């Protein structure tokens, strides 16, 4: 006859999940399922395994190191004050992108998909985590930056947008990321450009930096 002891709070939550919890669990399950189905280049034996080398070239094109080195080299070689200002802000944007993505990855700590093959081009400690996709974030950021600060013909502008989208898609095809990693990365990179514009570095706002070149 004694009354039954109440269930622990966490058990009650499991037995009576909230609508939000069910929705998030369902979205996560769909994300994992879709990511695995779309990871057609995750290995040589995958459905599109023959396209894996091409996907890895695209991977390098969106990696932070080539962009950082290329921007720094252009900054050192430039003899135009206007070009130096643009390149210095691009360098600032790339560094900000690396720091922000590393912080978010370190906080979220979402593991990479199980079907990912860990043969990525130059990785650091937080690269074992997948959320968000740094390649997708960088691609969206660079895309907006280039479209706003370089005078390009329409075909080239289209190619820049396509490159950003292909970089994002390739992350899922290679099995590096889940779909939501890439989608959030693209949104984050798009928003990050607005921060760069707001904090735009100029000879008036940052004279010490421009004095170096």
Automatic annotation (TrEMBL):
<keyword id="KW-1133">Transmembrane helix</keyword>
<keyword id="KW-0378">Hydrolase</keyword>
<feature type="transmembrane region" description="Helical">
    <location>
        <begin position="182"/>
        <end position="201"/>
    </location>
</feature>
<keyword id="KW-0539">Nucleus</keyword>
<feature type="transmembrane region" description="Helical">
    <location>
        <begin position="145"/>
        <end position="170"/>
    </location>
</feature>
<feature type="domain" description="Phosphatidic acid phosphatase type 2/haloperoxidase">
    <location>
        <begin position="86"/>
        <end position="197"/>
    </location>
</feature>
<keyword id="KW-0812">Transmembrane</keyword>
<dbReference type="GO" id="GO:0006629">
    <property type="term" value="P:lipid metabolic process"/>
</dbReference>
<dbReference type="Pfam" id="PF01569">
    <property type="entry name" value="PAP2"/>
</dbReference>
<dbReference type="GO" id="GO:0005637">
    <property type="term" value="C:nuclear inner membrane"/>
</dbReference>
<dbReference type="InterPro" id="IPR000326">
    <property type="entry name" value="PAP2/HPO"/>
</dbReference>
<keyword id="KW-0256">Endoplasmic reticulum</keyword>
<dbReference type="GO" id="GO:0005789">
    <property type="term" value="C:endoplasmic reticulum membrane"/>
</dbReference>
<dbReference type="InterPro" id="IPR036938">
    <property type="entry name" value="PAP2/HPO_sf"/>
</dbReference>
<comment type="similarity">
    <text>Belongs to the PA-phosphatase related phosphoesterase family.</text>
</comment>
<feature type="transmembrane region" description="Helical">
    <location>
        <begin position="87"/>
        <end position="108"/>
    </location>
</feature>
<protein>
    <recommendedName>
        <fullName>Polyisoprenoid diphosphate/phosphate phosphohydrolase PLPP6</fullName>
        <ecNumber>3.6.1.68</ecNumber>
    </recommendedName>
</protein>
<keyword id="KW-0443">Lipid metabolism</keyword>
<keyword id="KW-0472">Membrane</keyword>
<dbReference type="GO" id="GO:0042392">
    <property type="term" value="F:sphingosine-1-phosphate phosphatase activity"/>
</dbReference>
């Amino acid at each position: 006859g004694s009354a039954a002891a109440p269930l622990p709070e966490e058990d009650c939550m499991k037995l009576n999940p909230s609508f939000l919890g069910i929705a998030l669990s369902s979205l996560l399950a769909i994300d994992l399922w879709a990511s695995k189905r779309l990871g057609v280049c995750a290995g040589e034996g995958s459905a599109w395994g023959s396209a894996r080398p091409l996907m890895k070239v695209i991977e390098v094109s969106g990696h932070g190191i080539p962009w950082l080195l290329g921007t720094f080299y252009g900054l050192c070689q430039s003899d135009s004050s206007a070009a130096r200002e643009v390149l210095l802000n691009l360098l600032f944007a790339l560094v900000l992108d690396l720091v922000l993505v590393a912080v978010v990855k370190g906080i979220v700590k979402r593991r990479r998909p199980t079907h990912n093959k860990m043969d990525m081009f130059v990785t650091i400690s937080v690269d074992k985590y997948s959320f968000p996709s740094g390649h997708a974030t960088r691609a969206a950021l660079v895309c907006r930056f280039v479209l706003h600060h370089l005078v390009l013909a329409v075909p080239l502008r289209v190619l820049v947008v396509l490159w950003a989208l292909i970089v994002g898609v390739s992350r899922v095809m290679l099995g590096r990321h889940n779909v939501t990693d890439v989608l959030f990365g693209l949104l984050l990179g798009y928003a990050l450009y607005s921060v760069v514009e707001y904090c735009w570095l100029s000879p008036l706002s940052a004279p010490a930096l421009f004095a170096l070149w």
